[in-house]
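Good day; I would like, with your permission, to put a structural problem before you. What I wish to show you is a protein chain and, alongside it, a tokenised description of its three-dimensional fold. Here, with my thanks, is the record as I have it:
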Amino acid sequence: MILITTSCASRDEAVRIAQALVEQRLAACVQILPATSIYRWKGQVEQAEEYVLHIKTRAGHADSVEACVRRLHSYELPELLMMPIAGGSADYIEWMRAETAA
């Protein structure tokens, strides 16, 4: 199991991506959190209000999640960070597996 993060410019975009991932069983759950991001882009320091998505899924779905996010995302270079889940509640991990079964 892995946790994938990305950030979006609007709540509507974040919800659209989250719903697509869950509906396609590419994610068991997607949490949407507000955030202030400060970053360097094309030589300028920028600040933006964004919405961070925590996408909980199977490692085997990583490529499909990435393709879905890229297809629906408005950013030229969307953040896609993938982190393995080292452990957790056995019941919750099993629920994640069941919800992302093909």
The chain has one domain: 2-99.
